[in-house]
Amino acid sequence: MVILFAHIIRLSLVLQLSSISAHKNFSQPDFVGIGSLSFLCLIDMKKSHVVVSLLLVLLFHEGEVSAVRTQDGSEAWGYVQVRPKAHMFWWYYRSPNRIEDPQKPWPIILWLQGGPGASGVGIGNFQEVGPLDEFLKPRNSTWLQKADLLFVDHPVGTGYSFVEDTTLFVKTDVEAATDGTTLLIEVFNKNETLQKSPLYIVAESYGGKFAVTLALSALNAIQAGKLKLNLGGVALGDSWISPEDFTSSWGPLLKDVSRLDNNGLQKSDSLALQIKQQIAAGKMSEATDTWSALEGLISHYSNNVDFYNFLLDSDEDPLSLTAASVELKQEISLKRYSRYLQTLRSTPGGEADLDKLMNGPIKKKLKIIPQNLTWGEQSNQVFAALQGDFMSPRISEVDELLAKGVNVSIYNGQLDLICATKGTNAWVEKLKWDGITNFLNTDRTPLYCGGEKSTKGFTKSYRNLHFYWILKAGHFVPAEQPCVALSMIGNITQSPVASSKQIAGGCAFGREMGLRIT
Ligand SMILES: *[C@@H]1O[C@H](CO)[C@@H](O)[C@H](O)[C@H]1NC(C)=O
Ligand SMILES: *[C@@H]1O[C@H](CO)[C@@H](O)[C@H](O)[C@H]1NC(C)=O
Ligand SMILES: *[C@@H]1O[C@H](CO)[C@@H](O)[C@H](O)[C@H]1NC(C)=O
Ligand SMILES: *[C@@H]1O[C@H](CO)[C@@H](O)[C@H](O)[C@H]1NC(C)=O
Ligand SMILES: *[C@@H]1O[C@H](CO)[C@@H](O)[C@H](O)[C@H]1NC(C)=O
Ligand SMILES: *[C@@H]1O[C@H](CO)[C@@H](O)[C@H](O)[C@H]1NC(C)=O
């Protein structure tokens, strides 16, 4: 295995992107974000005399730029060739709140998006938890307040990650975990500061299956002395850990909330049973097809319920769902995924378009994305390659992590359908971990946020298993309930930034972020 960073020649300060002055005005936005920052923080901006670091440090490997770091170290990104001709893209943000205190280690969050094939660098970063939203305005609820953030387009073929040969897409979660571990070795082994930080693998949706396999693979590499990293824990947000339990939950849940009648329930239960039998027989690819058919059937009988929030309608035409081929149905359900997040955008000021952003200003900023690569929110090729592993459960991997003493946190949005809380409760009850009975018998604590009186959720913990029930959120918890999600992630990562400090975010924090992105 080639350790890329070992061969890096640091050509310092080769790229001057703008004239530098200790009293520079924010008048010439060479980079993304500045215009929007002045929108929010105009008065502060004019007053401040800011040292702007517009320099990038390019890190070379074998004549090609493999990584870039901003001169102040607040951001870095790069490609790791995880296998010959398979390139994985990562983007790291250092928190402006980071402290170096051995008593209170500063956490790093590795965000794993779902799909499989959905881009964490795009969706998780700009639509959910990163420092800027897709209008490039500061996100006051960014998780960067509590931890450093590492976004990865995982597995290869997703977002800015790419393969030079289509046979190189991963076919299993375990293959993805091997690539992910190679990436962690490249990013962490050369930086002692990062090694001292506990890494929390935080996942959404299909990312949960990746997260538990990656955590186990990383622990093996750590034990073998190949990876220098301190694993803090795993957090599974609305995660597809047990496909059988989710597909079985859909019918009964929708019937109870009036979205299906008995007729629809019987038909969906019959497909759910078929899925269960296919999984038991190891017919995983067939189970994926049945999953797709079940989504179509439920869309039809529910008059198009939104799989990411069962109180809403999806804006798809139900007829096209039932008529289309299996492949098309999959594409439709994937498209639905991205549209749902778009509907959450509340910022006025016109249409934001993640495709345009990622293929325009962001690609320009990053410098190292191949010219002919087009960023896509969801790679159907990545999804298709994983068709044979999409429906396999990862409950035993959760058990293994629990038995090893790793902190496992689960959080679920109340209104999610695709990874419904009903299904999550069902697979949690199947855990063989010796603390499960006590966990199930433990009472919950209500959660509040932002000085509001209404209940935002519930939590409970027993030993190293933690569960957060988040009310009034669907599949995308951080985007739908940002206040309680931020408090939660601070607690999960044991962030030195106290729970109450989040309120101090807002404009001042946004300004700091703006400096960071230049
Ligand atoms: C900043 O801009 C203002 C108004 O445009 C100008 O008067 C001032 O000289 C500028 N300052 C610097 C340091 O360029
Ligand atoms: C290591 O990580 C720290 C924390 O983000 C950063 O400040 C520093 O620049 C990094 N060092 C190198 C050599 O990349
Ligand atoms: C992009 O260009 C490289 C050579 O510069 C080539 O190897 C690769 O196949 C191209 N990729 C696409 C998607 O066209
Ligand atoms: C797990 O989290 C708890 C706090 O919730 C902490 O006290 C404990 O040290 C953590 N354990 C590990 C192994 O990180
Ligand atoms: C986080 O921890 C603080 C302090 O224990 C508590 O007040 C708050 O409710 C917790 N928030 C969440 C979402 O767990
Ligand atoms: C963050 O922004 C939202 C809307 O943009 C606002 O409702 C909320 O109060 C803000 N929170 C903080 C902590 O500033």
Count of DSSP strands: 16
CATH top-level class of the domain at 72-242 and 389-517: Alpha Beta
Spans of at least 5 consecutive residues with low confidence: 1-54, 316-329, 343-350, 502-518
CATH T-level topology of the domain at 72-242 and 389-517: Rossmann fold
The portion of residues forming beta strands comes to: 15-25%
Give the name of the CATH superfamily of the domain at 72-242 and 389-517: Alpha/Beta hydrolase fold, catalytic domain
The end-to-end distance, rounded to whole angstroms, is 34 Å
Number of helical regions: 19
Most strands sheet: 14 strands, mixed
What sort of overall outline do the alpha carbons produce when their principal axes are compared? globular
Q: How large is the radius of gyration? A: 22 Å
Which class best fits the helix and strand makeup?
A: alpha/beta
Task: Determine the mean pLDDT.
Answer: 83
Pfam family, one: Peptidase_S10
Family: Belongs to the peptidase S10 family.
Organism: Coffea arabica
Subcellular location: Secreted
Characteristics:
alpha/beta, globular, disordered N terminus, binds 2-acetamido-2-deoxy-beta-D-glucopyranose, 518 residues, disordered C terminus, 14-stranded mixed β-sheet, two-stranded antiparallel sheet, Rossmann fold
